[in-house]
Design goal:
binds iron/sulfur cluster, OB fold (Dihydrolipoamide Acetyltransferase, E2P), 6-stranded parallel beta sheet, Rossmann fold, 12 helices, 453 residues, alpha/beta, 3 domains
């Protein structure tokens, strides 16, 4: 592996698009480049290498990245020595088209190629350096990611996905499932705890499909919970079919595992769920939600919904609205179906016109806003422990943090409070996205909530 000279350490600028897996991968990229003697810079103007870590899940994400790339091409034309690289799922998915559309790219590297970045950045050819081989064994186990946040950090525990849902490009761009050794995971969590991190989010494309030898995800969670210094543990994204009783029991009994679950459902229609290849019905999903809520006190749930999937008829969409009403999620991430090349559904075509997709999306969002507001208002008057992150976006003296249910809380501090502290607060009022709180004097409990379920 080529290493750069430490004295004139080259600067890299890294921008991240897409999901938490990409955020975690950017930390791996920063780890690889730091190990090779590079330093991170905050502005592309100050960089020797500008890298975009991209997402291919939806067409819109790609359009955004292409627009950003052409902006950066202007910078490159003023500074010909600058190297411009595209990393991540979009690089993996579309390398040929990308190289054609953005001929000024110096490198194109997929999610399993980051180990070779120092070498590829040293490449001086006319054609871009391309590394898009998928590697069934690559877990970056030995790379120390560079966390950007000292309160909450992501820890990747598995990569890839074997499920091949009909709409999803992930198995094609991130490859098949592989898990990190439990020892590597706990070592990483210990390292983060020593850096002062208070909360870890265990990550995987289907995180609860984690398996290493005889260690399943439930056992991994217990092992992570045994690490001193870490106060809160979450994980994302689980697949409903992998929510075992053992895992539910760990969620119910391990105090560090927080009462929040992002549980993608995608649709409320059995016909659509079957076409998508999700492997469960709406009734089975509702049954799982019931078991989770009975087991885990104060559990908050969020989900992903796709509207306008191939063949989604009015009654299918109505079933999705009915499921939203039945579950009453605390939050939902809603998307219009976007056909992706290489997926099974790509060849089936788009049957729902764009304006109908937009109308369905608006309806689903409007319903969810009402439900989220109702659920948050149910918390008014209750006490919540808030892990403080820093200043609230709207500024002033307000601070912000997260409750165990991963709800955003804002409050005016009564006394000096630092990021990473957990304070007790009382919910005074709520919007659909935020709890407005008063700080309380006293020790915060684990839940601090009347049951929100
Ligand atoms: S479970 Fe389905 S939606 Fe999730 S990453 Fe795998 S293929 Fe994609």
């Amino acid at each position: 592996m080529k290493h750069f000279d430490q004295s004139g350490a080259p600067g890299f600028y890294l921008e991240t698009y897409g999901c938490q897996m990409n955020v975690a991968d950017s930390q791996v990229v920063a780890g690889v480049l730091s190990r090779a003697g590079c330093r991170r810079v905050e502005r592309p103007q100050d960089a020797d290498f500008v890298l975009l870590n991209t997402c291919a899940i939806r067409e819109r994400a790609e359009t955004r990245v292409l627009a950003r790339l052409s902006e950066l091409a202007g910078l490159k034309s003023r500074r010909p020595g600058l190297k411009l690289g595209l990393l991540g799922c979009m690089a993996q998915h579309n390398r040929a088209r990308l190289v054609q559309k953005a001929p000024y790219l110096d490198l194109v590297v997929g999610p399993d190629g980051y180990r070779r970045l120092p070498e590829l950045l040293g490449h001086d050819g006319f054609d871009p350096a391309v590394e898009v081989r998928l590697n069934r064994l690559e877990t970056y186990e030995d790379i120390e990611p560079v966390p950007e946040d000292r309160v909450r950090a992501y820890v990747t525990v598995m990569r890839g996905c074997d499920r091949f849902c009909a709409f999803c490009v992930v198995p094609y761009v991130r490859g098949r499932e592989r898990s990190l050794a439990p020892q590597s995971v706990t070592n990483e969590v210990r390292r983060l705890a020593a850096l002062g991190v208070k909360e870890v989010i265990l990550l995987g494309q289907t995180v609860n499909a984690y398996r290493y030898g005889t260690t399943d995800f439930a056992a991994l969670l217990r092992a992570v919970a045994a690490v001193d210094g870490i106060a809160r543990i979450r994980f994302t994204s689980p697949h409903p079919l992998e929510m075992t009783e053992r895992l539910i029991e760990v969620m119910a009994t391990e105090p560090k595992v927080q009462p929040y679950l992002h549980l993608p459902v995608q649709s409320g229609s059995n016909r659509v769920l079957e076409m998508m290849g999700r492997g469960h019905t709406a009734e089975q999903y509702l049954d799982l939600v019931g078991r989770l809520r009975r087991a885990v006190a104060g559990l908050a749930l969020s989900t992903d919904i796709i509207v306008g999937f191939h063949g989604e008829a009015e009654q299918d969409f109505a079933a999705t609205l009915a499921l939203l009403r039945a579950v009453r999620f605390d939050a939902a991430f809603t998307f219009k179906y976007s056909r992706r090349e290489h997926t099974r559904a790509f060849g089936w075509g788009d049957t729902v016109p764009e304006d109908e997709k937009s109308a369905r999306l608006a309806e689903v969002i409007a319903l969810q806003e009402v439900i989220a507001l109702e659920r948050n208002r149910e918390l008014v008057g209750s006490a919540v422990p808030v892990l403080v992150e820093g200043q609230a976006r709207r500024g002033g003296a307000l601070l912000t943090g997260k409750t165990p249910q991963f709800k955003t809380a804002v409050f005016a501090p009564l006394m000096p409070v630092a990021a990473g502290d957990t304070i007790a607060a009382r919910v005074c009022s709520a919007t659909s996205h935020t709890l407005i709180c008063d700080q309380l004097v006293g020790e915060p409990g684990r839940q601090g909530l009347a049951s929100a379920s």
